[in-house]
Every structure is written in C-alpha cells, then in structure tokens.
C-alpha cells in the first residue's frame, strides 16, 4: 500500500532509554578493546564526527533555520534547536572571550549519563560523552566552520557542571555576508 503524496514521511524515534543503554554498552566495549583512555576518547570523537557529518542534513531539513551571521547565533542554534531536537535538553550558552569565538555549552542534565553513576575504575581520563564533541565538530565542518570542540568539565569526573567548549578557529569575514546594494 502506498503512502498518499501529501503526507510527509514519519521519523521513527527510538526509545531514549534504549539509546542511552546502547551507548553505555558501546563505551564499555571500547574500554575493553582499548587500554588507554585517550584511544577510547579519540574513537568516540571520530565516531561522533561521522555522525555529525550526516546528521547536519537532517537537522537543516527539519529545523528550517536560516543563515547565521555570527558565532553566537550559531552556538545559540546548536543549544536551543539541535540539542532540544535530538537530546531533549537545552544547554545554557556562555561566551568565553571578547573576540566572541569561544563559547561554552553548560548542560544541566546530560541524557547520555542517565544510568551512569561514575566512570569505570582506573578510567579517570575517560571522556564518556566525547561522541557529542565529535558530532558538533562534524556538523560544523559540513557547513564550512572549523571548530575545536572539547569537554571542559564533566560531572562524571566530580565537576559541578558538564561543560562543552566550542572554539571557532577562523575569523569570520563579515564583508562576505553583507548584502550588495
């Protein structure tokens, strides 16, 4: 039976708990496969990067966001639209410098660690949610924005908040975005 032409395809969502548990199993397996935390962190970042490069198309199609004219606009869209759309949370955004190219996303709640109480023994430098950094970096690169994305603080490591730092690496050419008269 075919679908009527006027109906949009439905996006199937998986249960959030299933996703979080599956992610936890992935990280546990990576900890077994790799001795060094740095190798696990790098693998999660690389995996996230691959997801981000593909996820950006879905995000742009579903969110209907327009062109951004500043790094603060971009960071606000990441926090208020993308995180809300895919993780159901809205992090706070803080600008970290006067040149307005360094930002922090403060996550009050991190759904990926919902069932995690602490890092595995002997894994103090493990960045459990490094997948998120790779996703953000990959998505930004697909829209031609080079950025360094890292975890600055993590509640799993005893910090008071979970904070992701985003540093845009190129200065925006403002002349390029001005309308011609």
UniProtKB/TrEMBL annotation:
The gene is TRAPPC3L. Homodimer. Component of the multisubunit TRAPP (transport protein particle) complex, which includes at least TRAPPC2, TRAPPC2L, TRAPPC3, TRAPPC3L, TRAPPC4, TRAPPC5, TRAPPC8, TRAPPC9, TRAPPC10, TRAPPC11 and TRAPPC12. GO terms for cellular component: endoplasmic reticulum; Golgi apparatus; TRAPP complex. GO terms for biological process: Golgi vesicle transport. Gene3D superfamilies: Trafficking protein particle complex subunit 3. It comes from the Eukaryota. Keywords: Endoplasmic reticulum, ER-Golgi transport, Golgi apparatus, Lipoprotein, Palmitate, Transport. Its main location: endoplasmic reticulum. InterPro entries: Bet3, NO_sig/Golgi_transp_ligand-bd, TRAPP_component. It is found in: Endoplasmic reticulum; Golgi apparatus, cis-Golgi network. Belongs to the TRAPP small subunits family. BET3 subfamily. This is Trafficking protein particle complex subunit. May play a role in vesicular transport from endoplasmic reticulum to Golgi.
């Amino acid at each position: 039976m075919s679908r009527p032409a006027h109906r949009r395809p439905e996006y199937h969502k998986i249960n959030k708990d299933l996703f979080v548990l599956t992610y936890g199993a992935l990280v546990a397996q990576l900890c077994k496969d790799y001795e060094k935390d740095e190798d696990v962190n790098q693998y999660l970042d690389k995996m996230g990067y691959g997801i981000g490069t593909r996820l950006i198309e879905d995000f742009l199609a579903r969110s209907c966001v327009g062109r951004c004219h500043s790094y603060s606009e971009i960071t606000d869209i990441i926090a208020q639209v993308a995180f809300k759309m895919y993780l159901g949370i809205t992090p706070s955004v803080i600008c970290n410098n006067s040149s307005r190219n360094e930002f922090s996303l403060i996550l009050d709640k991190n759904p990926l660690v919902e069932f995690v109480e602490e890092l595995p023994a002997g894994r103090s430098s493990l960045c459990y949610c490094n997948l998120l950094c790779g996703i953000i970096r990959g998505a930004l690169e697909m829209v031609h924005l080079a950025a360094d994305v890292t975890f600055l603080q993590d509640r799993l490591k005893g910090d008071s908040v979970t904070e992701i730092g985003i540093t845009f690496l190129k200065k925006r050419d403002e002349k390029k975005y001005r309308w011609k008269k």
